[in-house]
Prior knowledge:
Radius of gyration: 39 Å
Number of helices: 3
Amino acid sequence: MKKQKQNKKQNQKQNQNKDNLTSESLYTRNHKSIFIRNPLSQAVALACLGSLHTPAMAGTGSCATDGLNTISGAETTQCELLNGDSLNITGTGSIILSGTAVWAEDVTLGSITNAGIIDASSGYGIYAFGSIVGGITNSGTINADYHGLYVYNRDGDVTNSGTISASYSGIYLFGANNVTNSGTINANQKGLYLMGYVSGNVSNSGVISSGGHSIYIYDGVGGSVTNSGLLITDEKGIYALGGVGGDIVNSGTIQSSTTGIYALGGVGGDIVNSGNIESSSTGIYTHGVVGGKILNSGIISTGTSGYGIYVQGHVAGNVENSGSIDSYYTSIYVNGHVGGSVLNSGTVFSERKGIYINGFVDGDIVNSGSVSIDSSDFGIYINGAVLGGITSSGAITAGGGIYVSGYVGGNVENSGTISSDDAGIYLGGAYVAGNVTNSGVINSQTYRGIYVNDSTIAGNLENSGVINSGSTGMYINSSIFGGSLINSGTINSPVNGIYIYNPDSRESGLSIIAGDIINSGVINADSRGTYIHANIGGDFVNSGIINPGSGYTGVYLLGNIGGSVLNSGTINESYFGIYVNGNVGGNVENSGVINNTSSTGLYVLGNVGGSVINSGIISSSDAKAVYVNGTVVGDVINSGTINPIGGGYTGLYVFGSIGGNVENTATGVINGEQG
């Protein structure tokens, strides 16, 4: 009978998992008997061994009892478990040997429990290939030169609250209900290697230190994967090659030499980090479909080649950061598709871009937190499509503030603070279906506050906040606006306040503004207050204050204005107060104040389809106060005050073609030696 038991054991070892036989398994499963590499030799040997098979009544070695085998002392022989057996190694028990300590193959077992010591110096700690109804529990110590636990188990749980040290994987599973580690796993390769499907949850609240991935999911997990403990790995912390039906959650610490959480397969729920991820590469990477959200309320810090959150696949919900992300490349990078919004209410720090959309976002991009960039790059960079809007009510400190070269279906809005070397808001080849607005503060140290180049804005471009720029405040080049350009805030510029420019000097290349250009705020510029070379469908209106630099023009108009030029505000300290050298469909009117200290207050050199009217105050020095040298279809009328300062200068000088009358009404005052 003993001979039959031994032959059965050899026979079972050769037939182990025929559908999953590998060169490794052929090698590591034959510590006691036959080593077979050639498939033909394998078939012959198995046939021979099968002819010797006789059912055994009990296992061999230290487990020769039917049913429950209890080890409470020191054993030095292998425990082989057969059908229906269970194993309990108590706290005083041990199996120490050279080879595999516990062996079970093609059987259904009750349970395996270890509270003692298993030391397999040249084998597996526990090798169980079958169904283990009661599961495997280790609260003791397992040391193995191969895998600590190597288990094919479709029914029970696998639980470790003890210590497992292995030269290969700590726990290698071909299936289980639930996998739980609250102990310590030290492995030269993978910590938890889930080769087969786990129908329940996988959780770690202990310590897994591994040379390979800490938790590796090959086939899939039906429930959730959670880490509330410590993962230390030379590879990925959590690597989901297969799908995860629930969530992937880290509330502990992941220290990874590559990626913290790497979801290549699908995730049915959320990916959540409320803990700490320290990675040399990327913090969280998704390539498959995430059915829920990606949420970070913890800390993500990456090395010199890393991203904070990298979305390559599809995320059905939001990507949200309410914690801290410190990355080298981009803190939040979307190269795939996000069905919700990208939201930052936390802190983002990056050497490159803060939030970078190179894919598609169905919702909004919202920054209510802090984005800091330690380079010349932008805080928010849109090169893909955002179907919603872009809103920053927080702080952006970067080389540039917000850059859009793609599509935005809503508004681009800043109500926070942007501190940048480059443009605060930069549209380059963009399409914005809504408005572009600043109601906050833009501090652009060396460049333009708002820069619109070769782009389309279906709505308005508006500043109701403060723009402090190192160059032009609002610069528009070869772009199209469906609405108006409006400043009701303050623009401080060492160059031009508002500048609309056509670099090719072609009428066909002019920017088009379907609505009005309106200034009801304050423009302080060391050069021109406004320079407009564009096609304007509506009016140019100034009801605010324009302070150009000495020797420069307050309002300089080229191109075509379909409506009127209207000043009811104040224009100070300029070479020309208002200079019209284009085509104006309506009137040119001043009902405000033009204080000119060096040249002409109102100069009309172009074509005016209506009349030139002054009902306000125009003062000038060293030149003519009002100079009409173009074509005026209507009248030239003064009912206000025209006051050239200095002797021998003209108040109103008409040299061009006037279709109507030149009139100084009863309330009009023209001072000047030459009238």
